[in-house]
Design a protein that fits this description.
The chain is of the alpha/beta class. About 20% of the residues lie in helices and about 20% in strands. InterPro entries: CBM5/12, CBM_sf_5/12, Chitinase_II/V-like_cat, Chitinase_insertion_sf, GH, Glyco_hydro18_cat, Glyco_hydro_18_chit_AS, Glycosyl_Hydrlase_18.
Length: about 500
């Protein structure tokens, strides 16, 4: 999922995306942006020069070298440049000056409907990316105004970081320091700098959301595509790691906000952005330690969807860990994408196999069957859905399996686009393996629609699965088309 300094933006591709690491910092040339500094703090929108390219930060970051974290990384490559190395140092601290005058009067009078479980008792879990507050301008308030808060049973806040064997804050500015204006706030009341609680940022907005929806559970997710590199060290002393996580999640400043923890380790005993060499028992032991520390609070985990023999799912004891988790969130999306730049074009979230699928077994049905075979109860498996699409350009064939020249342009990342954009930019022209695709202007995109979600949830109910989850809330329409389809069909 969109990873951790993260993001895992979306989940980890099950076939490994390629990225081109840069080496030791080289002369960035005559780029007008300041030279990148390993010690400086950058927030979304900051630009730097590094390795003869200009880079723009997508969210808060410190110490992450531009060009080394791949598609899901914090740095967006704005292109090459040449000349003299800039010598200025970027500003290191996000400003804490209020952007608006705090006021105690709401600009609107929000009303909240207490969240209730779907009639079936199934879980509907949506990820909220902490970095949405930057370029995306997607705030917790949008979860309320779209109607999503009425339909969710659980919201996963992504991500906290894992480093030094501990759970740590991912982005302090977005998490608890940013001052939201009245117009940006869930309840229409601006953050006050003399509030006795001292809490601002997304955490305070989540607190306000829970006040309107007292049955909504909020879970703090740790790791993701970018921040999973620290799990190996954490697994070496799982009890100490679990204690650190409990202390952070239950910090007195926000103890009332969170109802548990979600672990997004990409991937134990296998490779994601970095490779892990932990033994197969490490994941089970880590989850058991978290259960001990968190007691009756929620302990969940986003996991690999690679259920092929010898694949990522065989590298850790997911069946043994099932006793410690409330549910698993297998990332049944990103099976295929533009890390294979020339194609073949293929749906990134197939429910089933189909003739011509590039890799047999890369489909949700295989994933679910593999987990069941390992002893995971159906009720502890949630079906994963993507609220975004993946696409190629330079395509001449409407049906899946065509060649391409590269990744199609996207608003934030090449080859990736939100559903809310694709529904009009490249409407669906066909379906395959239980998901949709659109062929338009030489581009080929795959994504789920309300109709394909309905079909996938028919499958989920037939398998006795515990519900559905999705990455992520910011990809849906302003009126929540996709989450409405989940609620209606689950």
């Amino acid at each position: 999922m969109f990873g951790g300094s993260t993001p895992t933006p979306t989940s980890t591709p099950t076939s490994t995306p390629t990225s081109t690491p840069t080496s030791t910092p080289t002369n960035p040339g005559s780029c007008t942006a300041p030279a990148w500094s390993a010690t400086a703090v950058y927030t979304g929108g900051n630009q730097v020069s590094y390795a003869n390219h200009t880079w723009q930060a997508k969210w808060w970051t410190q110490g992450e070298t531009p060009g080394t974290t791949g598609e899901w990384g914090v740095w967006k490559d704005l292109g090459a440049c040449s000349g003299t190395t800039p010598t200025t140092t970027p500003t290191s601290t996000p400003t804490t000056t209020p952007t608006g005058t705090p006021t105690g009067t709401p600009t609107t009078t929000p009303t909240g409907t207490p969240t209730t479980n779907p009639p079936s008792g199934k879980r509907i879990v949506g990820y909220f990316p902490e970095w949405g507050t930057y370029d995306r301008h997607f705030n917790v308030k949008n979860v309320q105004t779209s109607g999503a808060a009425d339909k969710l049973t659980h919201l996963n806040y992504a991500f906290g970081n894992v480093t030094g064997g501990k759970c740590v804050i991912g982005d302090s500015y977005a998490d608890y320091d940013k001052a939201f204006t009245a117009a940006e706030s869930v309840d229409g009341v601006a953050d006050s700098w003399d509030d006795p609680s001292g809490l601002r940022g997304n955490f305070n907005q989540l607190r306000k959301l829970k006040k309107l929806h007292p049955n909504l559970k909020i879970i703090w997710s740790f790791g993701g595509w970018t921040w999973s590199g620290g799990f190996g060290q954490a697994a070496a002393n799982p009890a100490a790691f679990a204690q650190s996580c409990r202390a952070l999640v239950e910090d007195p400043r926000w103890a009332d906000v969170f109802d548990g923890i979600d672990i997004d380790w990409e991937y134990p005993g296998s490779c994601g952005l970095s490779c892990d060499t932990s033994p197969a028992s490490a994941y089970k032991n880590l989850m058991a330690a978290l259960r001990t520390s968190f007691g009756s609070d929620l302990v969940t985990s986003a996991i690999t969807a690679d259920g092929n023999p010898g694949g990522k799912m065989d590298k850790a004891d997911y069946g043994g860990a099932a006793a410690s988790v409330d549910w698993f969130l297998p990332m049944t999306y990103d099976y295929f994408g533009t890390w294979d730049a020339k194609g073949p074009t293929a749906p990134h979230s197939p429910l089933t196999s189909y003739p011509g699928i590039p890799i047999q077994g890369f489909d949700a049905t295989t994933t679910v069957n593999a987990l069941k075979a390992k002893g995971v109860p159906s009720s502890k498996i949630l079906l994963g859905l993507g609220f975004y699409g993946r696409g190629w350009t330079g395509v001449t064939q409407a049906a899946p399996g065509g060649t391409a020249t590269g990744a199609a342009p996207g608003t934030y990342e090449a080859g990736n686009e939100d559903y809310k954009v694709l529904k009009t930019k490249c409407p669906a022209t066909g379906t395959v393996a239980g998901t949709a695709y659109g062929f338009c202007n030489g581009q080929w995109w795959s994504y789920d629609t309300p109709a394909t979600i309905a079909g996938k949830l028919t499958y989920a109910k037939g398998q006795g699965l515990g519900g559905a989850f999705f990455w992520d809330l910011s990809g849906d329409t302003d009126n929540g088309e996709l989450i409405s389809a989940i609620r209606s069909n689950l």
